[in-house]
Fold this protein.
Amino acid sequence: MKNKLLVFILILIGAVAGFFILSFHSKSSADNYPVPFSHYVHTTVHKIKCVNCHRGVETRELAGIPNIDYCSMCHSTLINSKSEREKIIYQLVKENKPIQWKVYYQVPDYVFFSHRRHVKLGKLECTDCHVDMTKQDSPDLKGFSQIIMPLCFNCHQRKNITTDCGDCHH
Amino acid sequence: MPRYGMIIDLNKCNQCEACITACKLENNVQIVSKENADMGRAMFWMNMLTISYTRNYPDIRSESLPMLCMQCDEPPCIKVCPVRATYKRDDGIVAQIYPQCIGCRYCMANCPYTVKVFNWFKDEQPVENEKTCNPDVSVRPKGVVEKCTFCIHRLQKAKEQAKAEHRKLREEDYVPACAEVCAAQAIHFGDLDDPNSNVSKAMHDYRKFTLQEELGTKPKVYYLSAKTE
Amino acid sequence: MDINRRDFVKLVGGSLFGLAIGSAADAVLKLPKSAEPVLYNGPRIESWKLTACTKCPGGCSLRIRLIDGLPVQAFGNPKSPINEGGICPLGLASVADLYHPSRLTSPVKKVNGEFKPISYDEAFKILSDNLKRIISEKKENEVFIVAQTESKLRSDLFKKFSSVSNFKNLIVDGFKETSAYPFKKVTGEVPDFIDWDKCDYLLNFGSQMTEISQNPLYFTRKINEYRAKGFRITAVQPRLTPGVSKLDDWIPLQPDQFGIFALGIAYVLLKDERYDKNFVEKNFTGFNEFKDYVLENYIPEKVEMLTGISSDKILETGRKFERASVPAAYFDASVLYNSNGTTNAAAIIALNALKSFKGFGKIKDNPFSSGVKNETKQIEGVTFASLNEKLSGYNGIQVLIIAGSNFVFNNPNAESLKKQLGSVPFIASFSSFVDETSEFAHLIIPDHSFLERLDLLTDESMGAPSATVLQPVVNKPFFKTEDTGDVIISLMKEIKPDIKLSYENYSDYVKLWAKKIYSGKEGILINQNKPTVIEQGLRKIGWSTEQIGSFDDYWDSLMDAGGWWNPFGEKVSFNPEIKFKNVFNYKSFPMISSSPQPKNKLRLNIFRRNLDYKGNMSIYQVLVEQFGNNWKVFYKLYAEINPQTARSLSLTDRSEIILKTSKGKFPVVLVFNPTVKPDSIDVPFGLGHTVLGDTSGVNPLYFAENKFDPETGLPSFTETLVEIQGAQLRSGLLSQLSISEKKQVAEN
């Protein structure tokens, strides 16, 4: 009984420490994007699909990140005048200042990955490789899935797709 | 499974060397510094090689041929690679996987055609060349061996495009850069196993020869001799 | 306290689990590299645009590959009748133009010997003020304009400018223009094309048809087809160029003896009486005198004595020429780079006249033969000869306008030219780069790169009029450059305010030319299929299934197609009048070859390679490297020598030696090539720039004799004698020399 209590307390301490670090990071996560952009608001609240903004997903190699000219299609007027966040993007659109996005999901340049091949032709879901962005603002809050070769191999072997080195590395 | 091969008609080729420039630019092959070039470290996946002179002056003629990786069916280079960085694919292309290569250069020593090149250093590239890099091909780090891969990145793109359009890969979808730019249309490329492809048809020419046949490497790059008589 | 193993695992695991939640993101986020922008930080959207190449006279249609709107690669346009998807090394490398670090980014003015950026308006004012001053002082004759352009539209605009402003001294330094010069002088007419379909024997005098010619890529394919049909080509050339090495017949001959050889062939025709008697009677003024003169002076044995070509060979070639039903003796601008270039060309024209120019043809209705709205007064212009003459007078030139021409680099007289240019009061240049010529300019208004401007490149050498579209592939020019065409049009308006022009700017002007195609309603866009015979017939009687809309629609489809051509236009034979007496007295035809070559000297044969056109290679590092790849002599000048000659001089392969001409010494790396003429040493042209791009190597032309063709003023490339200095350079010394040291070597 005593032991169990001790274990419980220690787990609690660990969790608290973990949450402390977590909260520290989520605080800094605002810096992960150059603008306070929220995937959650766009996808879950406003029901915008991934492909609506990442337009290359089904047609090109890179999914693409929309920039100010694309944002301006909605944000050229203030939709919700109370939102502080929206004012920032509204201001950027007015100044026509491109956003310096950081690219988190990126494969090294000796790997050739095509979104069209995987999403359109291979019929994969976004969440098969990426975090479910409908539940979070920026990609670092929970379980960032790292793109590593075993991830590719798992799928390729299971589905009996080519594992020839030269097909991806050139 | 196709078996890709190439036939170069030397009667048509007039050594304009566009294939060499195209290869260099398509594959982001590094331009080495002047000092390194002086040391014999210049990197070309393709060369215009003068192999012989026939007859005597003034009837003398030089015989030159564009020399690239022979894409052997029995490649000597893959037998010595300790890390399987170079290997033969099912479609016959002898690929070179740069992240896998440890730079031991055994394959270079074992290649009878001396068509593999080594990145001795990472020299600074001219600005204009960096800006015109081909995004489909990785820039190799220092210390790896590289060679012609029949522009394998073009095959991947062509396959994807064909699949997206719900059709089979056509012959003209995939040609290496050298064959594409040839003004004399001397370079034929395609599936050697497909009896209807251009290469298979050209294979029946009596002028056909390969380089260093006696070694048993079975090259998939064939030449048609310039001799017409 | 008892903690068993299981509890301990729980305990540690619990706290670790808690920590892990927090730090998982951290581990990934510490990937600075993946968050950094790589080569192409963008959606990497690929697109293709059509344009044309301006790097040589060919004018091939290009397909430019753009990534996110920026050009990265160039390929040939498979739909183009000119190149059919082919492209040459220069074209492949040409995209680098746009990004070159030494490109001029704005107009510059020379202040205290250095170029300072200024605004376009200021630059334009300086230029126009200078020209207005000249006009008010009535010194129009002291203005020289040198325009290197292969575009007929541009050269016509310069001619218009020249006639409007009364600046009569215009030199159009273009390949086609130069090639046409001897024809214009001798016959007044210029053939448009070689009739490949009819021609059954081609005697080629010195033209590097597949490398540097009017249409290298078209000729490459045509020559292959021609040979496959079983027809023969005889190449008379000082060097076994790659194009020649496939031919059955090569006659090694120095270009200064082309004329003698051509008249030697003419002798055979005249002696055998196998010439076109009707034609010479009608069109050849003073034929009988010419005949007597040739029969008297150009006996094969005598020609053999002068040229070293055996009389049997001359007879054999002559017989081939006379037996052919449609022979052609071809030459182009390259024959003029000699001290008797125009006379040699005239002799070749005379040889053609004996067979009534059967191998050549003309296009009947060429929409581009006359200028826009026929308003350009045909001004003849001048040649480099008069520029050289005026420059050497030191005070003969008040204003020099240079558009794209780098004539200092292409001139053996560079040292004194530089001094002379230094004394010209005002030089304006339109070069995109500071090169050996424009470094002397007082003002540079850089032109757009060819990927940023609009033009139509017209051509007739296919036997069909064609126009390839040169159009901007980037949204707007990268820098503050200005289209030279626009500058010229503004200058015309500024100088002559009362002039009425039918165009406001260069793109209007180009559209006026395009309207000629539109209103002609002939030909097809190059992306359209050739119509069938029936369709052609219907077209002829005015039936057409095509809906041609407004001009604007047509213009858009022309831009999309990348060009236009008319393969079914009527061709007519070329029947000019030969008037030797007026222009050349045929008695001035070459009689005696240059004095016999001294035994200890070799002929310096400077040759051109297709990697370079008039010294524009050095801005492309990839080509400069490739330049040395054949002999694996990189970034140095190599000299090819016949091994037998070398052995008799006890020289070894790949030794670094010094060549000595009357003007100085220069180092080369010797390579053995058994195809080189035994009495000459072959040195490639293209290296040795001092300011433009790569500066390695030596320009051998600077050490050549100051010999010029008296008519065209073009420098001689092959008439220098060299001595090989016995002392061999320590290996590696060459590469260590800096530019100034190289100059010193030269001066010693």
Residues 4-224 of chain B form a domain with the Alpha-Beta Plaits fold (CATH 3.30.70.20). The first helix of chain B runs from residue 18 to 26. Chain B is about 25% helix and 20% strand.
